[in-house]
Amino acid sequence: MSDHLRVLVTGAGGMLAHDLVPALRTAGHVVTAMGRDDLDVTDPDVCTAAAVGHDLVVNCAAWTRVDDAESHEQEAFAVNAVGAANVARGAADAGARLAHLSTDYVFDGQSTIPYAAEHPPSPRSAYGRTKLAGEWAVRALCANSWVVRTAWLYGAGGPNFVTTMLRLAGERDTLEVVDDQLGQPTWTRDLADLIVRMIAADAPAGIYHGTSSDETTWHGLARAVLEARGLDPERVRPTTTDAFPRPAPRPAYSVLSHATLEVAGVTPIRDWRSALAEYLQS
Ligand SMILES: NC(=O)c1ccc[n+]([C@@H]2O[C@H](COP(=O)([O-])OP(=O)(O)OC[C@H]3O[C@@H](n4cnc5c(N)ncnc54)[C@H](OP(=O)(O)O)[C@@H]3O)[C@@H](O)[C@H]2O)c1
User: Fold this and answer.
1) Distance, CA 237 to ligand 1 centroid (Å)?
2) Which of 65, 114, 115, 180 has the fewest CB atoms within 10 Å, i.e. is most exposed?
3) Is the pLDDT at 17 greater than 80, yes or no?
4) DSSP per residue, the chain
5) What's the pLDDT tens digit per position in 50-84?
6) Mean pLDDT of the chain
7) What pTM was estimated for this model as a whole?
């Protein structure tokens, strides 16, 4: 592949695409960014036509409302599974590689050691089921594909936990935040850079985990957010998942292994603390 690719990004109005499109352009790639109004992934003909003339398609389009998916699984499936299949078929027909974004929710959250890319998936939520079906569709329909699972994303391009904590810290004396879910807070700019580095490394087809290094709980993340802004982290009080029942079950353990990146010669994303500090200064 040449150094400068023609890249189609779907779901261009979303949080990840907000940082991915400029990162790809900075790396010298020629990007077609298409939001939902221009490219609805539930339309197979539109997906096939859009992929023509591209070397790489990055599928950022997704139904991401995890709790709503419990009561609207068919609608979520139409985007996360059928939509992924449409994009994959379009990419394969165009002779393009596909980078498809997926999630830690494909796992059951019961592990105590980081999930390997090849660990058997066992989603516990409707969102997770639809995203897993999307992974299978992508791998079946586009052999030249990367499934890039991410988790706990935050960034300038969308509402997210970090900005919510800063807003709440301005409104309340104390914040109750769950301390019994472990994960890897991941800045969209770091994930965008990872995808750029995977392109540069010409990483082989397969499943990769695009999350920060090290781990924390939501409570640990909230404390770090307040601390970075010079606020008292003791204002964040630990609570449990049971105290905040939600329609979709949350994985207790969402730490993902980066071994397949290392095997491909791609450096995994840095420690979440250093990313958070830079995000809060940007
Ligand atoms: N955010 C996280 O913490 C997280 C965690 C794990 C995995 N992921 C995965 O990472 C990827 C990017 O997530 P994100 O946070 O950037 O999500 P996002 O901000 O919700 O972006 C998804 C985009 O897809 C668009 N979309 C929805 N239905 C579509 C359709 N039928 N055709 C075309 N576009 C459609 C959405 O448009 P509308 O807004 O108009 O619906 C939105 O702009 C997704 O695959 C997601 O599953 C995210």
Assistant:
1) 30
2) 65
3) yes
4) --SS-EEEEESTTSHHHHHHHHHHHHTT-EEEEE-TTT--TT-HHHHHHHHTT-SEEEE------HHHHHH-HHHHHIIIIIIHHHHHHHHHHHT-EEEEEEEGGGS-S--SSPBPTTSPP---SHHHHHHHHHHHHHHHH-SSEEEEEE-SEE-TTS--HHHHHHHHHHH-S-EEEE-S-EE--EEHHHHHHHHHHHHHHTPPSEEEE---BS-EEHHHHHHHHHHHTT--GGGEEEE-GGGS--SSPPPSB--B--HHHHHTT-PPP-BHHHHHHHHHH-
5) 999 999 999 999 999 999 999 999 999 999 999 99
6) 97
7) 0.98
Q: Is the pLDDT of residue 1 over 60?
A: no
| Token pair listed for 163 | 């900005």
Q: Which two tokens stand for residue 2?
A: 């040449």
Catalytic residue status for 127: yes
For residue 225 the two structure tokens come to 């957010």
Instruction: Indicate which atom in ligand 1 lies nearest the CA of residue 104.
Output: 6
Q: Are 121 and 264 in contact (CB under 8 A)?
A: no
23 lines ligand 1 (CB under 6 A): no
CA-39 nearest atom, ligand 1: 33
Of all atoms in ligand 1, which is nearest to the CA of residue 100? 45
Ligand 1: does its nearest atom lie under 6 Å from the Cβ of 72? no
Q: Are 14 and 157 in contact (CB under 8 A)?
A: yes
